[in-house]
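Hello Y.,

Per our agreement to keep a running log of every chain we model this quarter, I'm adding this entry. I've kept the format consistent with earlier entries: sequence first, then predicted structure.
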Amino acid sequence: MNERTFRLILGVALLLMLYLDFEAGILAYIGMLLFEGVTNLRVPILVSRFRYGADYNPGEGLSPGCARIPFDAERALRVIVAAMLVVSYVVYRDQAWFFPWFIGSMLLLAGITNICPMVMALRWSGFR
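Predicted structure for the entry above:
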C-alpha cells in the first residue's frame, strides 16, 4: 500500500464518519493519526513490510543530506491533521463544523490526484 492509497482511504473514512455522525470513530481516527505521527509506525509501511518482507525500506533512495529537518513530511501531515481535527471537531465543534469536512475532502482529493498541498509545503519547508 502506498501513501496515495492510504490518503484516499483516510479521506473516505473521515467523510463517511462525519456524514454518519460517528463520534467514537472520529476520536479513534484522531488517535490513530496521532499514534502514527508520534511512533512513525505508519500503516502503509507496515502493510508493505508484511507484503514484501522485512527487507522493505521506503527511504533507501533518499540521500542523507536531502532535508534540513530530519522528520518525514507524511509523519508531520498526520500530526497536523490530528491537531486540526482536535481543534475543529473536539474544541470548536459548533463554530468550525465545516473544517473537518474540508480536511476529509482534501485528503480524498490528495488520494485521487496524488497531489497533497500540505505535504508539498512541508517538503518545501525542509521536511524529508
